[in-house]
């Protein structure tokens, strides 16, 4: 990896909280932080065109290494010019390692120092073995700007010895991923594991730093079953006191608006989650009131837009809750598209406003205003 192609500049730090605003520079453009990253699992954000994603403020997308390795396959994507060309997105892309998806296969997973063997139960049912080198080969074929090491993500709750083994394996695999990764136009991020055990989190981070460090760090193994307060007991001190200041911090798989606000408060820079688009396809919209479940009959005659002040295509276009209720009830795909655009824009705009408040030194007030909203304590 070329240090010249990737760098992280901190441009402002809030004087009261640990929030910071920065820019991560990549070959396909700059990523302003804090940032929410929409998830295009199979090389598409479901129902949304690349130009629409740009129009709502998307600066970086995610895609999934496991799913793309299965269909259409890394060889094909490489032959088509790489992921950027294949999916017609010319901005930065981050691909995860696929580790979370692999370990969701439960009994069909076998772990060893050399790598992981798993059964593709959601595809053809065949058994696949991935070493860290295999995983890096696929990542390099896909060609994203940021790629993640192969890691083991333990569930919650889990016995300490199970989490400890996940930390050991993830650290070992990080070293082997680093040795196998050769593309200079990709940034390889390490992943800090450790569950809710602070000492294991610090052990994981220390090993990643000891093997030469990485240009950025994912924080994995959260939002896997624990509640909000339990997560922050270790996440807050980890991010604010122990993570390297000069590198971006990416909290993986989190899309709850309140978690984003408080994650930024403790020093997180990057977030991703399928929550905004998945809930949209279920007929739910984000708002400052909390999650609006538009299937409910109470929206039948509601002439309001989804969220006052929102500039997404649904709200700026004047589409009423009553109309969106109708689309959801009828299973019309334009309803899912409008709600997906709205939910993504809601989180992107939330992070834009967070960034502005960090730069002007008022993020603590921003958090207080958010926590006073009805949405803050809702189950998203």
Count the DSSP helices: 15
CATH class of the largest domain: Alpha Beta
Q: How does the major sheet shape up?
A: 8 strands, parallel
The CATH topology of the largest domain comes to TIM Barrel
Radius of gyration: 20 Å
Number of folding domains? 2
Question: Could you give the count of β-strands?
Answer: 16
Q: What is the subunit organization of this protein?
A: single chain
**CATH superfamily annotation of the largest domain:** Queuine tRNA-ribosyltransferase-like
* General shape: globular
**Structural class from helices and strands?**
alpha/beta
Low-confidence stretches: none
Content of β-strand: 15-25%
Arrangement of strands in the largest sheet: 4-14-13-12-11-10-6-5
How far is it from the N-terminal to the C-terminal residue, by CA? 38 Å
What is the mean predicted local confidence, pLDDT? 96
